[in-house]
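Predict the 3D structure for this chain.
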Amino acid sequence: MRNPILNEIKNLVADKDYTLTKLANEMGKRLNKNYSLASLSQKLRNGTISYKEVRLIADILEYKIIFYDVSKK
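Done. Predicted structure below.
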């Protein structure tokens, strides 16, 4: 079974008319290192992507990560 983060990121990328390749390239530019589609895909498949990388993806795609207390209604 796939890791849910893979599907979530793929949906966000598609909603912004982006590609994972373009996303990986932009991440590499912003991190000032070689960041390949293969490494991004592997991290998404394995569920090993870091929170720092998820924040960067959100920034690139112009999303905001929000935490909210689900125990309060």
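Residues 66 and 72 are 15 Å apart (CA to CA).
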